[in-house]
Amino acid sequence: MGRPRGQTRGRVVAAALESLKTRGYAGTSTRAIAAAGGFQPGLIFYYFESLDDLLLAALEQSSTERLERYRLAVEGAGSAAELLGVLRSIYDDDVASGHIRVVSELVGASVSNDELRPRVLELMQPWLDLAERGVQDAVTGTPLEPLVPVRAAAFAVVTFYLGANLLTHLEGESDEVATLLELAARLAPALES
Hints:
This protein is an all-alpha fold. The protein has helices at 5-27, 30-37, 44-47, 51-75, 80-97, 99-111, 116-139, 150-171, 176-192.
């Protein structure tokens, strides 16, 4: 008796995530994924039309798992300083889990891949929506409210996050992003008053 279809598909996606974290986009082949998951490469095409479809499913799974957890944290932030603290926590978690590499690899690959680009952008939309809600909640009722264009600020937050992901991935063990987030959190109360 074999595994249920959903479990096997999940195993394929988990192996793709692991390969993206350890080998990057360029090193993630059907053979590398199959080796990571302990199955034959042909199994991938039973569930996915292409390798990129599988890699997007891996990004979507990783992103969806984090998005729900982070949504609760963002909704609990009552000020810009608290929101920046949440951003720092998100960043730390994404570095530790390897999600930062998955995002960096697929964003980087999508720059030169016309089919991948719109699909990666679509997976970023829920993060823009979350950032927009967080910014809106953080500035509502403060002196910043009339000054901050919420959608533009949310775009800036996601842009910063993606840029921080890429630089963290390029630099490796750097504390620059963490230092910047700590500084912003210390300055936020001054901006709110």
